[in-house]
Amino acid sequence: LTIGQTNSQSVQVFWNGKTNVHYQAEAVSSLNTNAWSSLGPVVVGNGATNSISDSNVNQPAQFYRVRVLAR
User: Fold this and answer.
1) What is the dihedral of CA 50, 53, 59, 61, to 10 degrees?
2) Rounded to the nearest 5 degrees, what angle is found at the Cα of 37, between the Cα atoms of 32 and 38?
3) pTM for the model
């Protein structure tokens, strides 16, 4: 994963995706919980770099993961 701040209102989460593989990007503000929240809809891999935006930048910390979904 690569995280980049696009402006003061959001960050962009990037990952290398495989063609036609389904991914769900998720975020959580504390690693002491397992309450991950989806960052938008499922993303279908394009064989290159995939990305999704997170506008919840008011947290003191934010952790990200991208899950591969079984289809």
Assistant:
1) 10
2) 145
3) 0.86
